[in-house]
Structure formats: structure tokens, C-alpha cells
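Quick board copy: two proteins, each given as sequence then C-alpha cells.
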Amino acid sequence: EEYRMTHRGSKGVKGLNVTEKNGNIVSFKTTSGNEDLMIITNSGIIIRLPLAQVSSTGRVAQGVKLINLKDNQKVSTIAIIEHEEEQIESEEINEVVENT
């Protein structure tokens, strides 16, 4: 809806304001909003977060920061996966209660 139709020979439509602060685009994925996002770095760090918790911005914004990278780290892979509710097993709850 935010992208206008262009004709042959046009210069296109800007999709993201890329700056030195936010870096290059790693990947684009189409989602319905109820999945989880998994981010994997080249050093083996994996984070998983629900897309419902990621704020939405306009198409010419600088984006939303999802992971803090250290000096030589880079995002190597991202994946959209089915959302799973966290379920604590009753044994784990009993163990926590007994230890308190």
C-alpha cells in the first residue's frame, strides 16, 4: 500500500533509508505478523523473538534495531518460523517451588 506503481524508465521507490548507523539490508521477508523471527550471527549467537513485539515503521524510516552486534559480528542468517507459546512443564514449576 505504501509503494506506488511505477512505469518503465522510472527511478523506483525508496524502501529504506540506509545510513552508516543502521548498515546494509541483510534480508527482506514477508510475514503475517504472528510468526517468530530467528536471527543467527556468524559467531553462533541465536535469538528468537515474536514479530508481534517488533514495532512497525514507515517505508523510508531507518528501521528497528533487533540485535546488538559486537565488533566483528555479522548477521549470517534470518528465518521466519512458526510461533510457539512458551510452556513451562509442571515438573519445572514444582522444582522451582521446592527450591524456594
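And the next:
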Amino acid sequence: MPGVNQKIIICGGDRREIELYRCWKETGLTVKAAGFERIPGMENAAEEDFKDAAILIAPLSGIKADGCVRAVFAAEDLNLIACLKSSTPEVILLAGSVAAPLKEELVQKTRLVITGDDEELALLNAIPTAEGAIQKAMELSMVTLHGSNALIFGLGRCGRALSRTLQGLGARVTAVVRRRESAAMAYSIGLASSDLATAAEAAAEADFIFNTVPAPLLTATLLKQVKGETVILDLASPPGGTDFAAATELGLKAVLLPGLPGRVAPRTSGQILERVYRRLIKEACRSKNL
């Protein structure tokens, strides 16, 4: 790919970034890592490496307002903004998202690519996310998914992948949607649907509730209608869409599951990143005729 002889630094992440690093190393790319000090065999980037790096890869979880990124295997917090002090304005920075206070600064300091906006990546990531959610549901529940009532908040990429898999396991699936188009989509793929006004009624019948919407939809009022043995799995970006304090007070089993692809299928997830990031880097290089 363009930039094959240029230095790439993978800045933080989880096991999928480890797979990405190994894949690129095997193909002969010049790649180093920051925030993986606890992983033997990964070549750690020094300050001088950031001075001549052409490409920086930040996690899909994004860059927080304090400049830090998620770095599961770091010895200490990894502040990417501090690392960028040594970089040039020509550096390509891939990041899942950037906190609003930092975005304009990074646009000025780097050639920023928001990977979380990429449709291919989102669609592919929905597959391990759905499988991981179902794995966790099976671990936490005393009943089978087959024959159960499963309620999904949201019918986006993740919601659709999840609904197909649940249907294949024999669950009765209802989607909570806001728009008529989403209700029509639910009907077209064999799902029942509910709007937000009747979501509490649907939740009262559910054995499993999956939330994919990063908005406070599973409120204390709704949770009061949920059965005590129901398993609630929140797949939305932190802090999720569930009132976890209310769930705890009500004795409900509710868990937030960020970064599922890297936890349940790191090899496949790393291959997904490699496939999509290669394209994004090529596009970024072409845009500057590199």
C-alpha cells in the first residue's frame, strides 16, 4: 500500500490492535506500538519515532477530551496529544472518534481520518459484536435463547446483525424503533417492532434485552417493568443507554459491554482493521498525492 516504507505507530487499543500489529509486521511494514508495554515482542515507539512517523493509529474507542486513548496493555495512561507534540502536520491520524474540544486542534495538527464514520468498518464490526453479545447472554442467563423473548433497542448495523443471529437461534425478536422506516425494516426481516411509547410493555415480556443505542432509553421507569431474571446487555458506546444505578437498585442483571470485537474475536477483528485501514490509508495518501 502507499506508505509501505513509512513508519506506522499503533497507539493504544486492545487485542485486535495486537493482531493488526502482527499482521503488518509479517507483511514487511515498518510498524511500532505505543501503549503495549505489557505485550512481549511488540516494538515500543520512542519519542523520536513520532517525529518521523507517517501514520498513527488510535483505537476505535476514540480520543477522549483529556487526550488519552484506551490502552489495555499500557503501563500507564497513553496521552496521544502529548505524543503528537513530536509529529509533523503531515502525519495521517486514524481515530474512531475525537472528543469535541480536541477535534479542531487535531484537524490543524494532523490529517485526521475518523474511522468510526466508515460504513464498511461498522458493518464488519457488527458481526463479532453480535456474536460476543450472544456469548455473554448465554453465560449470564439460566434459560436458552431458543424460545426466549429478545428485545433489541435500535435496528442499526449492530441491531440488524444481532437480530439475524438471535432469529437463527430460535429466539422471538422484537425491535424497539423510532422511525416508520425502521419499523418497516423490522417487518421485512421477520421481526416484531415496538415504538418508544410501548417499549416498557415490551420490556416486561423480555427474557433478554440488548441495547445498541447511545442514548438513555433504558430509564429507571422502564427498568421497573423488567422481570428480575431478565438479562440486560448494553452494547452502546460508554456510558451506554441503561440507567445502571437503577438496575442495581432493582436487583437486575445489567452489564455494559464496550469493545466486544477485541475481547471475543481479536483475530477476526484485527483482520477487519487491517482490511479497512489499508483502504483508508491509501485514500488519505492519494488525497495528498503521496
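Board note added afterward: DSSP finds twelve helices and 13 strands in the chain.
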